[in-house]
Design goal:
mainly alpha; about 40% helix
Length: about 110
């Protein structure tokens, strides 16, 4: 196979770093995925909304964003559909589902 000239960029081969950065970007896929997490952390703070555990730079990876209505495509910029939950509380939230929410109502 002969490489076809595609303008000036064909001369520049991607470095290993560039290639891995590209792969990472592709793996992140919908960039919005990491985007809403960052926004939610900014809005709600690095704290689990359920157990109140606080996270720092080292542990922040364990803090996840829960979608209150369960719709991952519903990402209002004001953060009203997001809840920051630690992985434990997040699991809990999903295993309880609607029934758990119903049972835990204070009234
Ligand atoms: Zn928690
Ligand atoms: Zn969730």
């Amino acid at each position: 196979m002969v490489a076809r000239p595609r303008g000036p960029r064909t001369v520049i081969l991607p470095s290993a770093e560039q290639a891995s950065a590209l792969v990472k970007r592709m793996r992140d896929g919908a960039e919005s995925n990491s985007n809403y997490r960052t926004k939610s952390l900014k809005i709600h703070g690095p704290v689990c909304a359920k157990c109140g555990r606080e996270f720092d730079a080292a542990s922040i990876g364990q803090l996840t964003v829960h979608h209150k209505d369960g719709n991952h495509h519903n990402n209002p910029p004001d953060g009203s559909n997001w809840e920051n939950l630690c992985s434990h509380c997040h699991d809990d939230e999903h295993s309880r589902g609607v029934l758990g929410e119903y049972l835990s109502k204070p009234e």
